[in-house]
Amino acid sequence: MASSLTSKSILGSTKPGSSSPELRRLSSPAVQISIRTKTKKNLQIQASGSSYGTHFRVSTFGESHGGGVGCIIDGCPPRIPLSESDLQFDLDRRRPGQSRITTPRKETDTCRISSGVSEGMTTGTPIHVFVPNTDQRGLDYSEMSVAYRPSHADATYDMKYGVRSVQGGGRSSARETIGRVAPGALAKKILKQFAGTEILAYVSQVHQVVLPEDLVDHENLTLEQIENNIVRCPNPEYAEKMIAAIDAVRTKGNSVGGVVTCIVRNAPRGLGTPVFDKLEAELAKACMSLPATKGFEFGSGFSGTFLTGLEHNDEFYTDENGRIRTKTNRSGGIQGGISNGEIINMRVAFKPTSTIGRKQNTVTRDKKETEMIARGRHDPCVVPRAVPMVEAMVALVLVDQLMAQYAQCHLFPINPELQEPLRTASPVELEQPQNAAAL
Fold it and tell me: Helices 383-409 and 178-195, interaxial angle, to 10°?
């Protein structure tokens, strides 16, 4: 099979084999293009937008009102103890119907592992996790098959694909995040067992109720403090204010947004790659891929722009163990796109839930202006349930970066004067279940 590029239409050749004197003067082997293919090639397209990770790779599948949702985890190291209960703990934190400030949809979100695990141990082969949908109400979305919900993905899915799954928003539904939280729980288990790394997220803002940063001790924050109330704010006083703010709009068919803060303790040094794959860039991409996200900042964030360089710089010192540390942490545990061993901290902003029970102006799929009141069951504020989602995405980034760092920089003996071993967990930690260690 051969194909060639001719200049007939440009230079006016009258016959396929003829050429003008001008063309003969311009012609040279240097400008002749010929493409020859000896064997037939098949064009392959990766699953567009549904996979994340390079070494620890996760692909999610399923829709809000389909048969179920889940994920395939490829690249998980072998010989790691794993059962459904390891994943179910975080899935229960994410599931709907937890309290009055979440969606009333009733789902148990019970997961099932159908491959990649044998006799309670990972085998190194792809792990398939599936969660069935059991409480679908497709008729609640009849209006949405005709008109677009303001600020939702209905219109843009039509603009991109020319077709969409109407019930529950299809892939744009937050139910898709089940396929992130499950592998995120596994990633947290690996990080904890290998390096003693802990990932904790909590609600730091709901609407105009902002938790002051100095009221949370990131060095000693526990999962119990976060899970002690339905809004997942570690400060009881501000938790009550946040719950009241959600209740105020919930009863009026409205919604509010908020902020989830996430910290990482004991992150190995050296994670991340300079230039395009900086650690904070990967974290931002992962967190901003979650539904309803509108902003991301780490370290001093935008407030750092109000400081001078002298005020903002984190000065170095040597601690009692001879490790290089920083006196402050405005860098957020990342410098030059690489983790420095300090606490990594970031904040993710979530918009108010777009589906609300109030009359709004919109247009139909045939471009006619109309009004609609969206039905269905939705969260008046997404941030309480977003907490395990943020933790999951951060864990997926870090375990992928850990494997990359091990492969590139720790395959051969390290330089002990400048580098530290990646593995810091003790044998006791390696045997502890993730949930027991966290709680």
Answer: 50
Per-residue pLDDT at 96: 80
pLDDT band, very low/low/confident/very high, at 325 (cuts 50, 70, 90): very high
Helix axes 279-288, 383-409, angle to 10 degrees: 150
Residue the block writes with tokens 């790394």:
197
| 376: nearest Cα among 139, 153, 133 | 139
Exposed, middle or buried, 427 (CB in 10 Å: 0-12/13-18/19+)? exposed
pTM: 0.85
Judge contact between 390 and 260, C-beta under 8 A.
yes
Q: How far apart are CA 94 and CA 108, in angstroms?
A: 10
In this model, does residue 44 exceed pLDDT 60? Answer: no
Query: Rounded to an integer, what distance in angstroms lies between the CA atom of residue 296 and that of residue 259?
Result: 9
Residue 9 neighbours by CB under 8 Å, 6+ apart: none
Other Cβ atoms closer than 10 A to 361: 10
Nearest C-alpha neighbor of 49 from the set 222, 133, 182, 171? 171
Q: Are 349 and 290 in contact (CB under 8 A)?
A: no
Q: How far apart are CA 262 and CA 122, in angstroms?
A: 28
Token pair of 260, please?
Answer: 């989830």
Question: Which of 87-91, 354-358, 363-367, 411-415 has the lowest average pLDDT?
Answer: 354-358
